[in-house]
């Protein structure tokens, strides 16, 4: 029997972390063949060139697709998606996969979904059913309605996908593959590398060994004009703190320029003494950095997801993670410098939380590969009500 | 106060009939400005060039967009959609509408939805919530998840859109605007034109005045290789009947070639005596032709929708209209020549059914315009559960 | 030493005939690897699906690219070219050829040229330097200016490419590969197949064994509104003749609809008794049909090129082949039915001409493969004056 | 009589300077209507957002087109061009201009040429016939072969376009419109603004009043991997000089990242004391800065063109301006730090050169407008030999 060809499309650095353990399991599975497509910002230096990490991890791309239109505004996001549909259609047409896997909710993931669904290729959606409240949510649920098989990350999400009219047999809670990576590094007692030495970055050379915070704040798409305002609140709050902070640049969504420019200007003018900036980091090293940090600040989903398992306190800013299932380690705070300052200071000095498995037990990747190998793959469905 | 700019995208001939009365009402409304975009197969001679009808009806296009890639297969459908996203994004960027209206469930309608939703333009979806069971259904429900305001055609559909997690206040049963056209011609006692004289077409010159049937059969996208087989069953059945039949060529979905070639070959070889073929017809004339016919055969949604109000018997073939809400005038029959033959013969000699308002009372257009003029327009939403 | 990878892009049925012998020679060459890309109308049933012929001839496509936008007007021709640039760029990026071959002058060939030249892949242009006077000529000479190596079909063309500022060492007269096919069938004494039996087609069943004519008339792009008028002149002239005629449908250029509709309407209304219509034919069979015909009528380049070697009389209509180098077998006639009628009648009853080698000696394919294997490949050049 | 609609496409900041005086003259002309299209990097903040300057100068865009694909490599340059063809075709289809103007030789200008030529719109090419030796040259001459009217900048260029087979009556030496701007500011005795105060930028606050140099170095497309190496040679040379230097960031060609990263790294690590960096400047202010500088260093065409009229000494680096007609003010130097250092030092202390009119007398804009208003516009041509 020929192996099932599973085509996974990775379009951004964070998506890679969310799928890596599944990629490993698919590649290792005796009856599966992995067809990895690297596309979008995952190919771009400006966004950390995930392709480099991916290839260093031993994966080989079956195709690479440049599709990100410059401009970082809602108009170019839409056009990027259109280009993605055109390009990925070609890719799938030539690769002839037995199933296509699309990940989560980034704007360009719907390009993968359309290219597969319209060509009658069974579409598997990872991480459907979650709730955030921005354009991401429109995209995520639209992906659900285009997909044939749903591998979700929590019971909460599973219930929601079923309510969306999907056949319960086609909605399986595998846990989130991102937790697999967390589990992998979770037993390491100390941070086993020097972040500044290994990753360079810009800004002060910090003495982080006695405890540090991490910041990662992305623009919120539907309010992108406010991105600059929001980031300044965080910058002002962080700048007042007396402990070292590692700060990560935002990803490629609309408004990234607002956020990036905010950071750049602040750096030039204020020259903050306690912040060191990174463009990107190997995903495992990033998790290590998180695990050994005192607090994560920002609106990254890593705060909601990975940190639940790690038990690291999180100061979650604004609306980006609204309504996403969260553990007790998360404190929600609005974009106000005083509130941010207080919450981060308090979290920094608080204890770690116990492990929570709301997003999985750390074996999602293997579970996903097994399901892809054994479940019936179809591309025809109808709503359940 | 400036008028609200309402951008309606018409991508195909049948979509025009479904929205025409709403276009008229929007154009006439004192606080609305209509921005009409004509795109896709609505511009192409091969598919009846709806643009001609539209302009003859007094509407002016704010933009025209060629986007249909040749090939009529699943691959070109997907790529057409990608091109549509790119092009329509430009169009909306330049027109700056206050809301965009997308219609129903054709594959390319999701291009309209993405181009609007990603640019934070409030998206209004007409005719969501219905059920069919093919790729159309994936597209329709994905449109629902991208849309902010849902103007549905039946109570049945309204319930389904709400179940999909939409805010009930944003889901309004206006009835279907296609019924408005039906109401308009419904009082005419006889067919007031000679179809062959007015529309030419090819095939026999029929004596239709003593009663005739109409056939309209589209390929079913996810089974497009069977299109030829299916159409031959219908052709064989119809060819055996002893009354005149008007037959309409299918639209542009994948497999259209299978269907079209089937018809073309049958014509060349069998030279059927009782069939006359049309490429297209003014939508009102088409309704007139339906109203005065004895039976409609095929899988057109007109059989489900318009014929419910008209009370014309329908022999509905195959799965294309599966699970769509239907009146008592519809008889479902598989793609088997004998079953088709029997059903059509029986329906031809049966009586008309009474008017049914399951798809509206004939005032949907005015209702839609009023809602677009007065309801709050937003582009931010979250799932209700 | 690894083989040189030679990527040849075939975008239309006639281009395939023009390159077939070179494809065979490249495939057979010990130090070359053929990467065949089939694109554009070569994939479409409406234009004779050259892909079928190509694969039946034993070639395997490295990639297939759907890129023809529907509409057949100047706007869709331009957009098709844009799509082609996007798609072919991807294809070359993934195939990493050592050289790309673009053929002649069809509008979409410039897409191949841009995709290669911009990616610094050495570009080989076949059949540059010829003159016609329409948009084709703009495209052909623009291809020359983007190309690095020029394999031309005649001394006349070689001189012109050099005048265009190209390095004479990079301009080589190989002869036209289309003549290779002609040479191959040139010794066959009789037509060894029954065209109607083998290819079907529509129209009268002709008794062609005592002599027949062939017609092939394409729309002239920059005058596409006149296409219908022009084709009617030819149809009227041919209809008056008293010998059998095989007529081929036009290719995909803008205005094809004018020409096609002209033919279709004429058929329906006039029902010509002496004409049989074909959509397409295996290229070798087409040459056989030409070789044994009494006269070729129309504006096909086959009249100028293949028929010079065959010695078949040609009645060449209108401006499409203007200024192309021609043999003594060609008589130029304007689009006037009387003039056409007289010229065709006279040619039909005249003798064959002797073989002319102005377009090559029949060994172009082997010569091209050898040059591709041995010449220096570069992508950097400057004008010679 | 309706005005002639002249559509000018500006795709980059430097192109705007090259056409500005013509835009002014077209806008002011009684029988012309200007349709200005702003596209490509001219819309992007990263490349100086020329759109802002353009609108501040009182021009209004008839359309804006986002088309630059991220990645800045040969592959994305090619795909950007494909997107440009698609988009600009739409734009011209909707604007229906009487002529389209394309400028010079940037890779994306061929998109304008194809979109116009294929739609049978007369195409006017500005600044054809020049020689450089990179991909630009392929593009420029291909533009010439697609264009119908050639408005060139020098007698040298005129001769070359005619040799390319263009009708001498269609090749007019108007001089270069960029010289018009030079003439405009040429009488100002001192720099009438403080560059750092007005434009910010980053780096040292220099005392420039006693004499300064300007640097502008772009990556050379076909050698883009060397971009970083080349820029470092220049940075090292300039860093050793003892006078102040204003340095401009490169534009959007492939390799820009190599160049930009080279500069960025050098800044972080070396912190040069005598260099101040600008992203961009109002074109007139840039000319003022040039006029009052002691020397221009780099490979910008401004050194060849504008500085010939200004008489400012130029140290021209590498191959980018190879074979372009130049005045006596230009000294050519390879990418070697010592050679650069010596040449810049010598030029800094040398005298100005007299005005040269090899690129025009400063009235090109008015001449261009008049020609566009009065010359016959056609889209049909054939090569002259």
From TrEMBL, chains A, B, C, D:
<dbReference type="GO" id="GO:0016798">
    <property type="term" value="F:hydrolase activity, acting on glycosyl bonds"/>
</dbReference>
<keyword id="KW-0326">Glycosidase</keyword>
<protein>
    <submittedName>
        <fullName>UDP-N-acetylglucosamine 2-epimerase</fullName>
        <ecNumber>3.2.1.183</ecNumber>
    </submittedName>
</protein>
<dbReference type="InterPro" id="IPR003331">
    <property type="entry name" value="UDP_GlcNAc_Epimerase_2_dom"/>
</dbReference>
<dbReference type="Pfam" id="PF02350">
    <property type="entry name" value="Epimerase_2"/>
</dbReference>
<feature type="domain" description="UDP-N-acetylglucosamine 2-epimerase">
    <location>
        <begin position="25"/>
        <end position="372"/>
    </location>
</feature>
<dbReference type="InterPro" id="IPR020004">
    <property type="entry name" value="UDP-GlcNAc_Epase"/>
</dbReference>
<keyword id="KW-0378">Hydrolase</keyword>
<dbReference type="InterPro" id="IPR029767">
    <property type="entry name" value="WecB-like"/>
</dbReference>
